[in-house]
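Case study.
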Amino acid sequence: MDEKFIVLIQNAPPGFKLTVHAFHQCEDRIKWEAFGHYTSDATGTVNVSEDLSLGGTYSGVEPMGLLWSLIPVPGSKPGLRMRKLNVQTPMEVTISVYQGHQTEGFVDLVSLASVLVERWHMAPGIRRIPITEDGLSATLFLPPGPGPFPGILDLWGGGGKLVEYRSALLACHGFASLALDYLTNKVTIETGNFVDNKYFEAAYNVLQQHPQVLGSRIAMVGLSLGCAITFKMAIYSEVFKLSCAVCISGSHVQPVAGSLEHIMDYFKENAWKTRFSEENETIVRDLLLPITTDTSFKADVGRLQCPLLLVVGEDDQNWPAYESAMDIKEMMEGAGNSHLLTVLSYPNTGHLIEPPFTPHTRASNFMSAASHKSTYLWGGEKVAHSHAQEDAWRKMLLFLRENLYAGRNPVLTSFSHL
Amino acid sequence: MRLKPCFNLHRNLTGLHRAVGAVRWRSSCRPAPLLTAAPVRALIDEQISIKGHFLLPSSPVTVCARMHSEDGDLWEAFAHYNTNADGTVNLSRDHSIGGSYMGCEPMGLFWGLQPAPGAREGLRLRKKYVDTPYVVHISVLDGHVSPSEAQGAELAAVTAERWYMAPGVRRIEIRQNTLVGTLFLPPGPGPFPAMLDLWGMGGGLVEYRSALFASRGYASFSLAYIEHKDLPGPKNCLNVDDSYFKTAFHLLRDHPQVCADRVGMIGLSYGVYLALRNATQPGVKPSCLICINGPVGSTIKLSDAGGRTENIESNNKYWEYDDQGLVTFKEISSPANLDPESKVKIENITCPLMYIEGEDDQNASSTDNANLIEETLRAADKSHLFTRLSYPGAGHLIEPPYSPNSRISLWRVKPEKVFTLWGGHLAPHAAAQEDSWKKMLEFMENNLRR
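After joint prediction, the assembly is written out as follows.
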């Protein structure tokens, strides 16, 4: 799913106007399309990876524009977001070529040629293992081979559900990855109570104790609310010993004491700061602004002992990720551990920084943990956001590989078994 | 924090770590090395790039491939490498210094696959069901070992799928108008150029080459003509005549998604004779012909003017057995020994013809037949139609690339087991398959698309 493809059209007449079109029907039965306008060269060839799109849902030289610029077909409901929940089947995309520079009514046109492309989250040999012990709602993805593999604990945000696709992709890159649902898990659904810190520690232990996971090389990746948990566990948990952490579109502003319940209460207390856009979209970035100076409401990042990668969109309308990143930098510089910090900050990029080629969603219908449904504004401009996703993913993989696979090793302890 | 015993993997302890072997990795503080393959899902004729990372620098490793055929036999290949100073091995860059192949061979693990020790004799790797992939388990092992020595001592592994059929290709069983075959259509509206695909005397319905052609944009029809349960008549005879092949050609030509004037034919072995014979029949006008290692006439006596033959076994006094008891059909396919009534009038060919010849073909007299075709066309002033690709060291079974050659395989089980000698040596045959496939596709593009 994070691989690039090459779309090549050949044997067209030279200088021929044509439209390259992508079509996908997602799991929710919504139809998505993207298209680019091209002119074939003197040999009658169009190479989407090298040639200029003159218009459509994307323009310019964009090898993967046919995927990241996918939008719901005209007539669809507003506020939609494409998410694949079943990672065991591929995303099927039909790529077709039409005569002329078409902009609409593709379903009624006859294409000149088409191919079917399969985009997978899971490589062959990856093992998908549901985990339900200790009341956990999680899925473990193991790469093929004997291991041991470094481990990753993978947390998403306030929307809940067990979102597996990032973990599946991480496993394709050699990491044992555990996707964890901590908002719509069984116990929370049944009792209405949020999980406590022990829930996350149990998840960590699943990785730590797994015979094919290298217990001394575990990382945590969090998005949005998942970052809050990441900071809490990385800094304050006795159980967690992370090799590194990645926080995407999140903040360190949270009550230091307590657990998830207290974090959620803190948001509720600040909910009056919610704003609305002209289109009535919910903007909640102000809930944590201005960044407080009260240290009992900020995770003490000065105490971090492992490398931290922050990925933030400067147009994040949902969390003040950029402002938080700047504050984190200041705190770590003050504490003398800023050598551990890397910040990737992307202009015109919104909140939902997802694996590459995922279509950008500027706003969508969202059911918050308070069970209140509305349209939330995430932010970001399509092109910049899509490029940011690609760049951030690549750099995140490098960061994880560096810290989990290469050199930098706790020094050996004893030769007593020799 | 509890202290865990942990081995330091500094190079000074290389000798020790080798003695400890696989156990070392499991109890160490380092993760296992990383082995990657790209793409992990590929068509059979696509190259897969295999790399190992985070291995010990300048150290011996073995890269190994294992897979099960559809019959459940285990096939394996392996190669010995020394990692680079940065602890990597890259099969597209590095040289194998031993194993199933030598030198820099990015796809050697696939064309070098051989039956594992203890396997049944005379195996040949052929895929019957093209809608599922070959699943290949690729691993990297410590040291220079053979796969059987290294059970359970893998350092890292990756699984690759190799497909004969691309997504979107449609497979259509054809049992109409007496025809027995399978049609493969590329995805999309068409119309497509097309190929009629004929195999040899082994019979049955062989689909994989057609599936690949369809994956490359050609409508392709695999036609069975002998030894298939849905075909009429007694066993071991060719019971269909010229009208059968004409019907097949017309099915393709008249298909709404096929370009009527862009239909070619490909034949291997006896399929060459059939392709040539039908190309010179009225009503059949292929746009091009590809002939692989086959004769210009029938190796079995014809029983009628329509092309049917007598029993294959009726010729068996001409089958040669070499000193190992292997049967070959070289003599009976020599131009001088072919049924004279069946010899095709090559001078009547009107379309481009590509002849692919394995110089080590031990099964058919390919060289003699190729010479005959070349001379006949030259005499008829038609040399411009003829292309000949000749491959030293290649045998009879020149198939799609990156599949292992079988120099010998089981030909018949009853009344007794007979093995046949196909010829071809592993590495040169693999090179021939790779090169001829590429040139075949170019030939098809030039004659069927432009």
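Observations recorded in class. Chain A has eight helices and 19 strands. Confidence is low (pLDDT under 50) at residues 408-418 of chain A. We will return to this complex in the next lecture.
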